[in-house]
Amino acid sequence: MASRERSPALRIGIISDTHGSLDPRAYAALADCDHIIHAGDICGPAILRELETLAPVTAVLGNNDFDEYGSEVGHFAHPVLGGVRFLVGHKPGDVRVSFAGSAALAPGDPLPDVIVHGHTHVPELVVGPAARPASIYLCPGAVYRPRSDFGRTIAKMDVEDGRILHTWIENLDGKVLLEA
């Protein structure tokens, strides 16, 4: 009987609100990621090109972005990474899913495992009933003009075979601030 090979965990970097300036510490912090999600307010195609030198990027438009990124960058993204379903949008109200549905999901779309937003510039990591219908609801904070005592932050998540193994938000000095 052949043994079943396990796929290695996938590390996802989550970033938002770069506003046209990618801090070199953020770039370095994302160097170990297999995929990067940018939750809007990119403010320049050069940011995405720079991130793509590290890993494939999924990005959404923020309120300060224009249609300069091509058709692959819209208001919402629904990537499935390591078997985990993500819903990504810029503003928190746009990605919240209620009994009435969500502008970010079409009828019949599967519910996300992880909801990601930007815009607030404040890191947030919610699990449990408050994250429903997702398992995790998060904002990575901001790389540019943070609005919290946490400073400039990014998030990371390890996933494997449809499971979320570990999620955390760290500052650009590598200090873990929030984790689940």
From TrEMBL:
Cross-referenced Gene3D superfamilies: 3.60.21.10
UniProt KW Iron keyword: no
Pfam family, one: Metallophos_2
Domain Calcineurin-like phosphoesterase residue range list: 10-161
UniProt keyword annotations, A-Z: Metal-binding
GO molecular function per UniProt: hydrolase activity; metal ion binding
InterPro entries to which the protein is assigned, alphabetical: Calcineurin-like_PHP_lpxH, Metallo-depent_PP-like, Phosphodiesterase_MJ0936/Vps29
EC number(s) from the headed UniProt entry: 3.1.4.-
Cofactor(s) needed: a divalent metal cation
Family from the record: Belongs to the metallophosphoesterase superfamily. YfcE family.
Classification via NCBIfam families: yfcE
Protein name per UniProt: Phosphoesterase
Originating species: Adlercreutzia equolifaciens subsp. celatus DSM 18785
